[in-house]
Amino acid sequence: MRHHLADATALLPAAAAPCTADHPPRRPLAHRWIALPALTTLLAFDEPARLCHCRAPLAADCDFFPPVIPQTTEAEVAWRLHRATAHPHVAGELATAVFTAASTTQLSTVHVHDLGPEASTITLHDDGLRQGCMTHPVPLWARPLLMAARRCWDIVTGTSGPLFTDPLGSTGLPHLTAFAESCKLRPPQPPRPAPRKRKTGTAPRPRQQQETVWPVCTVHYGLASVMLEPDQMRGCPYPPPHTRKTIARRKNGWLPPDYGLRELQPPR
């Protein structure tokens, strides 16, 4: 019987490429606490500002630059927030605090109309205690959370209510700091005391989980009356510089005298 030899790859369909969805992404920071300097300024003592409809300038034009997050850390934060809760306004609020270094007072001023097209920008309002109202660009990983929060308001009420509240009136939701701790996100903590030397032959004591310290930092405030308020850092380090001058001087290895500890600042 006559026959011909043929290459199998020419007759059979090509093998399907391996599906990347079957392999979970590599997470070097999984199950670890992540210290985010942007959360150092989350708590505030001032009251929420009035409802504002201004067209705020970009944060960079106001000489304000939030802390930069390393790419690996940013990917892990995004992974956790996208899976932490079924309430997008809760995850969106914490995400906004992460990429803007905003306080709870500023976050409470955000309404649905303050979100730009496709959630590309978000505007935070301020009565002038800090740098004033500012518009921040939204990173790609946070946009689905903010768009979902806005969609909830569009479906339920169709009005421009506070973006980071639930239009359905859910109760029992955690406070923002408690939600951050459930995601293992927190501000940089005070240095731990040196461990005591144990006697030879004694069993080591189990390591106890320390309670998260949430400072009240006023380094972003600009009014002289507010600057007189005492810092309540509770041993936590100050956030990184946020202006062009202080960032440039940090790169050169020193900071101007008007940054950081109040007792080191010149009198006004």
TrEMBL record:
Residues 183-211, 249-268 are annotated as: Disordered. This is Uncharacterized protein.
